[in-house]
């Protein structure tokens, strides 16, 4: 199924992948603590206009904190929210066409694979796209 057809537009980030609705076998996990969302689940986290061009914003997708960026060329990117170096808020980082720069100590990470160009541990990058004005992140 294409991600574009599987998106539900909800006020809060909720699973959009069939079989992951609340109560379905994929998410009806019993036991202590919250279950991690199944890998590959898509979530509508907010409206595209919530992220001004050239900036980033933090969202939660299925319990996963993510940073979503809209570059000045209109492209969207999503990464983990916290920098692996010392927990810096990546959504507040500087962006260019190739990399995200953490605001705390200026380590840089490539959009394509999350690898650091300055020697830090890599960050996780997530597939993200726009559908009907909604930002859809796959975690
Ligand atoms: S916390 Fe991000 S570079 Fe140090």
CATH homologous superfamily descriptor of the domain at 50-127: Rieske [2Fe-2S] iron-sulphur domain
Task: Kindly report how far apart the N and C termini lie.
Answer: 16 Å
Number of strands: 10
CATH topology of the domain at 50-127: Rieske Iron-sulfur Protein
Specify the oligomeric state. Answer: single chain
Mean pLDDT: 82
- What structural class do the secondary elements suggest? mainly beta
Small molecules (ligands, ions, cofactors) in the structure = FE2/S2 (inorganic) cluster
Radius of gyration: 15 Å
Contiguous uncertain segments of 5+ residues: 1-31
In the CATH hierarchy, the architecture of the domain at 50-127 is 3-layer Sandwich
The spatial strand order of the largest sheet comes to 2-3-4-8
SSE order, one letter for each helix or strand:
EEEEEEEEEE
Number of helices: 0
Largest sheet: 4 strands, antiparallel
């Amino acid at each position: 199924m294409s991600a574009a057809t599987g998106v539900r537009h909800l006020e809060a980030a909720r699973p959009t992948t069939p079989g992951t609705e609340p109560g379905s076998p994929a998410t009806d996990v019993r036991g202590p603590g919250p279950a991690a969302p199944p890998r590959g689940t898509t979530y509508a986290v907010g409206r595209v206009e919530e992220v001004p061009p050239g900036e980033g914003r933090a969202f939660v997708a299925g319990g996963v904190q993510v940073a979503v960026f809209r570059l000045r060329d209109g492209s969207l990117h999503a990464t983990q929210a916290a920098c692996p170096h010392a927990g810096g808020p990546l959504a507040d980082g500087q962006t260019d066409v190739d990399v995200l720069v953490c605001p705390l100590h200026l380590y840089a990470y490539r959009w394509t694979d999350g690898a650091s160009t300055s020697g830090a541990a890599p960050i996780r990058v997530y597939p993200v796209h726009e559908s009907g004005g909604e930002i859809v992140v796959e975690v």
